[in-house]
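Review session, final week

We close the course with one last complete record, chosen because it touches almost every idea we covered. It is N-acetyltransferase domain-containing protein, a protein from Kitasatospora sp. CMC57 with 284 residues. Go through it on your own first, then we will talk.
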Amino acid sequence: MSEIAVVTDRSDWQSGFEQRILTAYRAAGCSEPLARALLERALKGVEEWTVATDGTGWIAVGVTADNGTSVGRIHDLTVPDGRAWAEQWCADQGARQVEVRLVGGPGQFADYPVRGQNRMRLAAEQPGLPPGLAVRRLTEQEYPAWYAGETAAYVADIVRAGALTPEQARQKSDRDFERYLPQGYLTPGHAFYAMEAGGEVIGTGWVNHGFLPGVTFGFSLEVHPEHRGKGYGRAAMAVGEWATRQGGDEAMMFNVFGGNEVAMRLYDATGFAVLDEYRSIDLP
């Protein structure tokens, strides 16, 4: 293998990288506006990335501070057996973790644990609510208790995924909820639901319409623990599709944390394909 060297002229790499990302998102069923919006997110901070080549492929890496930890990020890797170089570069910059965002399969990173996945599918054109299930808007009086439960569940999901310590997870939760719900219950574009069966609230939902072009993001479609195992998980997914069309969007997207095998199996069964995923390891 030729020696890997950092390059200063990145034009050839970037044009190829952008085309590969767009092709992968199109293959995953994304519309052209959505594929380009996802590409824009993938290119965030690209000016600060380091790009290297061995003449046969490319490596793009960077380091950022994340929750008080220096995290290396492998943004692109097409050099055969180039992972060791990328990991060593991150370690040399002081990184204690290495993360990779993958579109189109794990490739050289199959042994990295999955920390999170974005899943997506087109909603049915005229989705109906499941028989026996009623959906209503969550009331403003119910919101504080819902919020407390959601933040606690979010912290638990992050810790179970192995991505952060409990204290780091709490800090991330505070930042994320403040960012996504700056006006709380009245934040524009967000809708909160209660799902009822037999006159009893069996779960709740939180969606963000127009999160990306044509996409409603399901931040949470939660069935309460005492009502799980009764088929309501699939019903909650149907509610998500219904809410997507109610908000004028055509596709529903979710995030699932690594380690949540129950949710992953449910998403597989209900046709939510992996759009992209995050994997990471700790460095020695």
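Two points worth writing down before the exam:
The helical segments are 11-27, 32-42, 83-92, 143-160, 166-180, 232-246, 261-269.
The mean pLDDT is 92.
Good luck, everyone.
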